[in-house]
Write a structure and sequence with these properties.
The chain is of the alpha+beta class. Helix content is 54%, strand content 9%. The chain has helices at residues 2-27, 37-41, 44-51, 55-66, 82-89, 116-126, 132-161, 170-187, 190-193, 198-217, 231-260, 269-275, 287-318, 320-333, 342-348, 350-362, 396-400, 421-425, 440-457, 496-499, and strands at residues 69-73, 76-79, 165-169, 369-373, 379-381, 384-386, 391-395, 458-461, 484-487, 490-493, 501-506. A four-stranded mixed beta sheet has the order 1-2-7-4, with helices on both faces. A hairpin with a 2-residue loop joins strand 1 and strand 2 (76-79). 41% of the residues are buried. The model has no long low-confidence stretch (mean pLDDT 94). It binds protoporphyrin IX containing FE. Protoporphyrin IX containing FE (HEM) binds next to helix 13 and helix 19. Pfam families: p450. It comes from Coemansia thaxteri. This is Cytochrome P450 monooxygenase. Keywords: Heme, Iron, Membrane, Metal-binding, Monooxygenase, Oxidoreductase, Transmembrane, Transmembrane helix.
Length: 510
Amino acid sequence: MEFWSISSALLAIAVLAIGYFAYQLWLSPFRDIPGRLLYRLSPIPSRLDALLGRLANACEEDYYEFGDIYVTGPGVVVISNPDDCRAVLSTHKYTKNKFYQAFALIEDNIFTTQSADLASLRRRQLKHTFSHAYLSQMEPALLKRGILALEQRWDNLIANSGNPRAQIQYEAEFARMSIDVIVALGYGQSLHILGTSHEQVARWVHDYNVLAMVKLIVPFACTWPFSLLISALLKSKSEFVASVTAAANMRREQLQAIKAAGQKRPVDILQALLDGEDPESRAKMTATQVVAENIAIIVASTDIVAQTLTWTLCYIMLYPDTYHRATEEVRNAFPRRHIINYGEAKARLEFTEACLFEALRIRAATGVFLPRIVPKGGATFQGHFLPAGTELGVNVAGANHHQPTWNNPRRFTPERFLDNEKAKQDVFSFSLGARMCPGKNLALFEMLPTIANLLKDYDFTLPADALFTPDRLDTHGNPTVMPRSHRFTSVGPTYPDRDCQVIIRRAAEY
Ligand code: HEM
């Protein structure tokens, strides 16, 4: 009896499995879309790619193997054709998928929301924050906490090395700088008063990302008794929320004193969030919303700016002609003691800016796919009809390497952006349309002066034992680039301590 019930159960499972595989292979609406067999049959391979940090490599390599459209899981389709990507991203119709909800650890916010109304409301409330006018007012703080503090640190390292030079791990340097900048803008002056260090905030951001990932894999992880298993992460989140709340409260109190004394209001992200008003409804954000958005901004921006700067320096070092051309451009345009700001760099450093855009294109720190859901009525891409509810990945790496759009896309060629504003619009790294990165201008205000001033003020060389050098070519004849991994929301080097070493020396006076 027992034998028969076990074998019937096994038989039922076998029939179901065969039925499932037959459906995926011959009946599913995705059967004619290219893709790997295993990925078509099970979500596990692509989840493993994500878990093991292989997503960025997969996105780029799969584009080269399968082209504009491919299947990466049962009911999951990835697109790379720039026109298709634009069509999806330009509208709110293709909502973000549930991945983002895992990051809504305080409440739904500009980054996590699937609601077009909330996303649009926040953009209206924050429009002023990321405008060139407001960014220009924030720029002194940005330069002080960013490039000037970094140079001060590097000069100290050189001075303490007993040599005219020092060896640095630049990924860690950029990570430190970008957290300092966003913390300065998000907390204002209150950080030191609160007794919180920047390292502490970096740890909170890390834990926040880990907690979101845990919630993504185990949606009920935050409820008792499972929450006991992740109590350290939950404690870290509460501390993060408490510190951002305290900063906002402190600012509200300061404002009264500032007003009474007739002084100027502070200019930073915290103030912009407190002041942010929808010009249509006059709605402002509640106290909790201010905290949720401030944390969303801190989390969304920290790693990505650091990783973009890391890839930019990495590529410049692998292409000596590019390094010399950019350095020459900066040093010819500005005197040695001048601090280059964004407007000056934008106006006079076309090639240096092109290096940044080319790094954003060739190895986007967001170079995975942006997950969306096909709306009611379905949609057709590359001749394939995708029914409503299909998970759609907009492949940033694929679009950035799209072969008909980019000549020799695997080669780092900043020249492609010279006198070519349109080419910049074809880079998908900040996304575009309805949910485009609202921090793009802030990121550029931070990154371009950083690269420009560093090239002006330091000579860079790779250490003698560097593994990745201009003469170590890959199978395509281009310098081999250090390996990358996808972590949380950004793509960075897999072995930064090994691969991101560079020797810096103060540039001679000129
Ligand atoms: C190199 C730097 C940056 C890159 C490449 C980048 C890229 C992106 C991309 C691709 C998205 C779309 C994500 C998606 O749809 O899944 C995004 C969204 C977002 N970014 Fe950035 N970002 C950068 C810097 C920043 C900075 C500095 C801030 C903060 C001020 C910021 C805040 C945000 C926010 C709040 C969203 C969510 C917008 C929405 O969904 O409506 N980012 N970013």
